[in-house]
Structure formats: C-alpha cells, structure tokens
Amino acid sequence: xxxxxxxxxxxxxxxxxxxxxxxxxxxxxxxxxxxxxxxxxxxxxxxxxxxxxxxxxxxxxxxxxxxxxxxxxxxxxxxxxxxxxxxxxxxxxxxxxxxxxxxxxxxxxxxxxxxxxxxxxxxxxxxxxxxxxxxxxxxxxxxxxxxxxxxxxxxxx
Amino acid sequence: xxxxxxxxxxxxxxxxxxxxxxxxxxxxxxxxxxxxxxxxxxxxxxxxxxxxxxxxxxxxxxxxxxxxxxxxxxxxxxxxxxxxxxxxxxxxxxxxxxxxxxxxxxxxxxxxxxxxxxxxxxxxxxxxxxxxxxxxxxxxxxxxxxxxxxxxxxxxx
DNA sequence: CGTATTTGTAACTATAATAGTTACGAATGC
DNA sequence: GCATTCGTAACTATTATAGTTACAAATACG
Lengths: 157, 157
Description:
Distance between the termini of chain A: 32 Å
Helix content of chain A: 40-55%
Number of strands of chain A: 2
Radius of gyration of chain A: 19 Å
Strand content of chain A: 5-15%
Oligomer: homodimer
Largest sheet of chain A: 2 strands, antiparallel
Number of helices of chain A: 7
C-alpha cells in the first residue's frame, strides 16, 4: 500500500501544533504550512476533514485560524485516522475478477472480511496513542506554550 | 493510504489459485491472469516477488508455471504482506518539515515509532490467517482439486 | 461602514505510484 | 529443433496525491 498518502502524518503534525499552541489563540493555516513545509491550501483541506470529525474548529476573518475542539488527551490517533482515511488502509482488486471462477467470484468477499479484521487491529493500535502523547514525546526539553512562554517563543514555528 | 496498491489482494488471489491446484501441476501465468482479470505480466511480477520470499516456485518452458513452495497451511497473510509490501503500510511526510520548528524537527521520529508499532499490529493480525483458511472460506460447496476432481474441473478458472 | 485578513473551496497543474502492454531472450519439455 | 512459458525491460495509461492560483464569504477592528 505504499504510494498511499502522507495526509495521516500531516494531520497528526497539524494537531500537534494546535495542541502546543494551547488553545488560547487560533493558529493560521499559513503558520502550520510553514512548519509542515507545504502549501496552506493543503493544510486547510486537512483541517477541513478534521473539523468535519469535530477534532478542530476554524474561524474565518482577521483574527481567524484553527484550534483543537477537545483537549489533546482526548484525541487519539484512531480519531485522526478515521477522520482522514475513513478507516481503510487496504485495497481490493482494481478490476473485477472473473466471476466464472470460484476463486474470482468469492475472493473479494473473503478478503473483505480479513481486511476488516486487520483494519480493526490497526484502529486498536492507534487508539492507544493520543495527541497529548505525541506532544510529550516530541522533546522533553521544549515544553509547549502554556508551560513556559519564553521557551515556547524561542521554539515556535 | 488509499491510493495504495491492489498487489496484496492480487497476491492472495494468486496463492489461493495455486493452493487449489493442489501442487500436482504448475499453473501458468495466463490462467491466473484470466481469473484475476489482468495482464499475465502483472501476475508474473507478483509471482516473482512471491518466489523471492520463497512462497512459490516457478519454471520456464513448455510444461512450466508456478506452484506453492509450501503447504497452504504454512503460508500466512503476514508472509504475503512482507513479500509484497515490504511491511510498510503507513507513510510519513512527502517533503521534510521545517527543522527550525520543534514539532517539524521531531515529528518524523516520533511518528516513526508509532507507525512501527501499528505495523506490528497489522502483522500480528495478518499472521492469524493462512492461505488454507482463505481456500476454506471461499466456498464450502466447491472443494479444491485434491478432494474431488470432477467438482474442481467444473469450477476451474 | 470599510478595509484587511483568513478561511473554504473550486479549478487547474504537477508528481509519483501503480497497472497495463508489447516485446524478446532464456529456459525447458517434447 | 520447436513450441511454450517464464523473467524482465521498456514503454504507455491511469489514478491518487500534492501543489498552486484564484476568489467568494466570513470576521475583527478601526
């Protein structure tokens, strides 16, 4: 499945930035884009998906931007995965197999079951990590904005 | 990660066909391609990866074709996954994040750890199903060649 | 109010991965 | 030797993802 997207990784990056901003001021897509090293529209598209899943809220206008809709402890990577990928990591055949063949006629159904189970395992694994965990693991020495305004300013981006 | 490949699904399809052939006669890539509904070269490329992982053996020439290198009970979907995808379902950023930002500088490392764990969960889940299981689930009423030559002939393809 | 700013989204291009195709040398059974 | 089949290279086609430009709608603030 490589060849897949980097959206999941980017979405986690985005949420981590918002978590570190502490929810006091909304973060602009331009600022996020700079950290991720991509175009602001790409970021806004991802923020849009995250907003649909009620993980963030966004606001247009002069003092606009995005912030977390919940505390980072309450956002798991499973939530992000579902918001971004719709919960499907594996793909079936591109073209329909030959239905006159017993294997071709039934393999999609059988595989569907197996891949559903696999996906459930993925989700269980992802559910064990939260955005707060990611923030913590980032760098023990560089605390987020809330904890130390000076350190956060030095390390911002 | 959708947008990924269908090779994993096709590889399982291929191995299932070989398992049902029972290992008596080698199966030709043309015959497999017909069941999968694709080009024989696509199948041969996948067979090549499966041969490198020692899951099948192939033979050139007049009476050539491919057959399983082990009994289907001893080939797990994890083996197939590793042979085909190299064991990486998730992808990181496309372009390098901004290293001047604490998040950008460290997110790849942190995510790498999380995704490794996730991948391990995928593999554990896939290890629980074998090609023999797939064959069994295909259709209780249409047994493979070994069990009933007549039924297999009728249902072949 | 009017202006500056920022989101949301459409429309397009670019890049890259995957699949499909043609072709042919090498291997092999008959 | 000859027909057949694999392995593989080289190419095209298709699709997904990312990147870009542009602009209407929302909103803060003077």
